[in-house]
Amino acid sequence: MTEAHWWQDAAVYQVYVRSFADSDGDGVGDLPGITARLPYLADLGVDAVWVTPFYRSPMADHGYDVADQCDVDPMFGTLADADRLVTAAHALGLRVIVDLVPNHSSDEHPWFQEALRDPSSRLRERYLFRKPGPDGGPPNNWESVFGGPAWSRDEASGEYYLHLFDRKQPDFDWRHPAVHEEWERILHFWLDRGVDGFRIDVAHGLYKQAALTDHPPSLESQDALFHASAAPHAWDQPEVVDVYRRWRQITDGYTDRVMVGEVFLSQLERVARFVGPDRLHQSFNFPLLAAPLDAQTWRRLITASLAAFEVDGAAPTWVLSNHDVIRHATRYGGGEQGRARARAATLTLLGLPGSPYLYQGEELGLEQDDVPGPARQDPIWLRSGGTVPGRDGARTPMPWTAQAPGHGFSSGTPWLPFGGQAAERSVAAQEGDPGSTLAFYRRALAQRRALRGGLDRTVTWLDGPPDVLAYARRHADGDALVCVLNTGEATTTFALPGATLLVSSDPAATASADALTLPAGTAMWVRAQV
Ligand code: NOJ
Fold first, then answer.
1. Domain check: are 242 and 372 in the same one?
2. Domain that holds residue 63
3. Are 121 and 73 contained in the same domain?
4. Which of 115, 154, 395, 407 has the smallest C-beta neighbourhood within 10 Å, fewest atoms?
5. Ligand 1: does its nearest atom lie under 6 Å from the Cβ of 324?
6. What atom of ligand 1 comes closest to residue 61's alpha carbon?
7. Ligand 1 center–CA 400 separation, angstroms
8. CATH code of 129's domain
9. 121-125 contact pairs (CB < 8 A, 24+)
10. Contact between 503 and 513 (Cβ < 8 Å)
């Protein structure tokens, strides 16, 4: 890459707006709440904040069902609050990435409302209305990602409309030019307000196969995390990248803005098609989310990711948790051990070139909460009649203080209840404790910031025992940053003479004159000659 850009190495912190900080006591987080907590994020040492959707919405999918992408939902504040957030973030040196949801709108979007009201309206062509299939049922066999058919019937006209998510999230027809024009207007609207970039929801969606033919039945529901492999006609159509070519021209007309796509595909070579100098700057890189914490698997996936994304005009991303998946401390076994492994995994990714995307609460070592059934709100849970747990357990509010019931998140009743971990893992409980997960994140992010300007982007693998993942990145001062991770069940040593410890995921991981000692499930960064 000829010129360095902030987003090539930015640590980005995802704020799930409903659950971060509630300023007005209604139990739901909001924009002024985020603004008030920005100093915490600046202290944590991240470079940017990605704020999940805060636009006008009936909240059927908690904001991913957007009725007006250019206005703020009163539950979250006002446009002036959004402007204040951006200004306050910039004053602290933080960038702001907002979420765009271009695959679908809310059924309460004015276009869809008009399409329902008047079946002869031309606005109907901006969505995917179709006549019933030969048996009078849905036009094809597509399923919603949230469970059940991807079609709902409009009783007035007898036609069905497509929704790959909830029935309150009708899919746009991206073959209609008005949809393109509208989204280009939306891009300019937010760029002109000074946001630093966009996270693009379901970026591999948008276009559907023109004929909307049935999916092969043998593929159905094969791959729960990566729906696309089970539904080849619904996702990743050849035309979609052209949308991002146009959007890149638009963002390139502003200074140093970024687009990161939520490209939920399991094959990296297909994901890689979305990034490059004339398309998206970044795509989320999800295969690690679905992989066990195992040295060999990680080496293979990281190697493939670097080859796919460390390319001109783009940069890799690293993701272990977000609001849609089970928190990584829980995936790695939960409890003390799961949290320790989660820290080790995070440290390993923080040392790589590219952008780690961190999810709120992981810096506290939060685990997935077991939200009681009656309190659950996720449409996945609701649509499945309570048979699929859904994502609420990753979305419980941030515990800022140890004091129940609001834990500094809200003076009212939180929209999702806190689990049992809130008091013990609150920010206040960890503040000032050098052994806490929070202190570890601060140390690791500070080291990352101190080193990154001098680090070569090339990652060199170092060989060691099978359970050890080790890599080096050369530093301009002649030494290298060496990261070593032990994914095994026993303590291991790694020969590395003259290493100086920079940061470790666990105080029991140590460097002596000749070798590093890493207990099971720990990682460390050292400075060494390699
Ligand atoms: C991906 C988002 O991350 C998820 O929360 C949402 O439900 C779907 N896209 C639909 O917008």
1. yes
2. 6-103+176-441
3. no
4. 154
5. yes
6. 7
7. 26
8. 3.90.400.10
9. 125/173, 125/176
10. no
Given a cut of 50, whether residue 482 has pLDDT beyond it is: yes
Query: Which pair of tokens denotes residue 413?
Result: 């009743």
Do 431 and 320 sit in the same domain of this protein? yes
- Tell me how many domains the chain contains: 3
Q: Are both 78 and 221 inside the same structural domain?
A: yes
Residue nearest to atom 4 of ligand 1 (CA): 324
202 lines ligand 1 (CB under 6 A): yes
Q: Is residue 136 part of a domain?
A: yes
Predicted local confidence at residue 221, as pLDDT: 47
Contact predicate 228/262, CB 8 Å: no
Tell me, yes or no, whether 429 and 514 share the same domain: no
Which tokens is 105 given?
A: 């709108």
Alpha helices (runs of H) in 118-216, residue ranges in sequence order = 177-192
- The answer to whether residue 169 is domain-embedded is no
Confidence of residue 266 (pLDDT cuts 50, 70, 90): confident
Burial of 131 per CB tally in 10 Å (0-12, 13-18, 19+): exposed
Summarize the confidence of residues 508-512 as an average pLDDT.
Answer: 97
Question: C-alpha distances in angstroms, 326 versus 222, 323, 367?
Answer: 19, 8, 8
Paired tokens of 400: 């800022």
484 in Cβ contact with 469 (< 8 Å): yes
Do 131 and 193 share a domain, yes or no?
no
- Tell me which residue of 390, 391, 56, 101 sits closest to 261, measured CA to CA: 101
pLDDT one-digit tens code per residue, 203-236 = 999 999 999 999 987 654 444 456 666 788 999 9
What's the pTM? 0.97
Tell me if residue 262 is catalytic: yes
For 83, counting Cβ atoms within 10 Å of its Cβ (0-12 exposed, 13-18 middle, 19+ buried), the class is: middle
For residue 514, give both structure tokens: 């000749």
Q: How many CA atoms lie within 13 A of 17 on its CB side?
A: 24
Q: Are residues 212 and 125 in the same domain?
A: no
Same domain, 240 and 328: yes
146 Cα to the center of ligand 1, angstroms: 10
* Measured CA distances, 396 to 17, 31, 275, 370, 425 (Å): 11, 17, 33, 10, 13
| 239 a catalytic residue | no
